Amino acid sequence: MRLDVDGVSVAIGSAAILDGADLCVEHGQFVALVGPNGCGKSTLLRTIYRALRPAAGTVFLDERDVWRMSARESARRTAVVAQEHHADFDFTVREVVLLGRIPHKRPFDRDCPADVRLTAWTLDRVGMTGFGDRAFATLSGGEKQRVLVARALAQESPLFLLDEPTNHLDIRYQIETMELIKGLKVTTLAALHDLNLAAQYCDRVHVMRAGRIVADGPPGDVLTSELIEAVFGVRAERMTNPATGRLHLAFSPAPAAVVVQEVVPRSRRPRRETM
Prior knowledge:
Rossmann fold; 275 residues
């Protein structure tokens, strides 16, 4: 599955939330979407999974406009772990994970033994074996997050969209969740706050600022000290993680932030015709 976002814009009233954002995630890539709070990361994800129709631009999955798909077909192709979830719905953990099977069923179909086996497997993958009968509302924030990742796994979609998938997780489960997602080898776009997690696990990063993608490429090329200071307003010392050989960043306060428009040259793709 390949994802293309082409010139997507979203406005609320007179305020532009996204301004001609475009990105590409190639088949099997794990790509991070990073940027300061309020830059439009969650809004961009919502346009991709059809929760928000853009005012301009198009989202393509394997050359097909997502808004020309049915909701069911879109759900079969895209699994989502969003930041927002309802802590008070009266479902067990197993029932929450089984919701991931809905796009594959006809109305009134019951859960089959294969669905139950898949649910058990996904709970095991996220370290939640034995929690199937627990009420979802009684779980901690980190436990809920892992259950929602399990639901996305149960959906068996070729595209994963994750909005802060390590939110509420302690260090162990942050690493285990990122290892799990990386190991799936599914086309994945994840909004992340932690630049070191993005540098450690992702094939590419797209950096957002004020509703635009201002840089993209491999983490070691894009996450320069200059760009981080310009976009995030902090200083970053680059070093090599001795355990992994990947980029690691150490942060300190910056005296002033520099406004960046586009620090790293980006390959421009021609506007595409809606198919």
